[in-house]
Amino acid sequence: MNPRAIAIIAVGCALWAAWQGFCLYNLARADRARVRYLPKWGWAVICLASCPWGGLAYLIFGRPALGRDVSSPG
User: Fold this and answer.
1) How far apart are the C-alpha atoms of 31 and 18, rounded to whole Å?
2) CA gap 40, 13 in Å, rounded
3) Cα 40–42–51 angle (5° rounding)?
4) What are the DSSP calls for 43-65, one per residue?
5) Which candidate, 28, 47, 55, 73, has a CA 20 to 30 Å from the CA of 40?
6) pLDDT tens across 24-62, in order?
7) Omega of the bond leading into 3 within 30 degrees of 0 (cis)
8) Cα–Cα distance for residue pair 61/31, rounded to 1 Å
9) Which DSSP symbol is given to 68?
């Protein structure tokens, strides 16, 4: 295997690990009651099982809304 292929694989693995870490860190810090549609463990399984689409799905659909208090009306 040539060095360029090894470098590309290493960068891909680093990007994969960074993406998974970002999504799981974001999920771990979220308040359990504010995560939408699934429990936190369900989102964790989806994030790990289908990278990058699981993480994108969590960030778009499951993450609590930023800057808004979901519990108060208005």
Assistant:
1) 22
2) 25
3) 105
4) HHHHHHHSTTHHHHHIIIIISPP
5) 73
6) 999 999 888 889 999 999 999 999 999 889 999 999 999
7) no
8) 15
9) S
Stated pTM of the model: 0.77
DSSP states of 34-46: G--SS-HHHHHHH
C-alpha angle 31-74-70 in degrees, rounded to nearest 5: 10
Phi, psi of 43 (to 5 degrees): -65, -35
Q: Say how far apart CA 25 and CA 48 lie, in whole Å.
A: 12
- Backbone Cα Rg of the chain: 16
Token duo for residue 45: 């399984």
Neighbours of 57 (CB within 10 A): 18
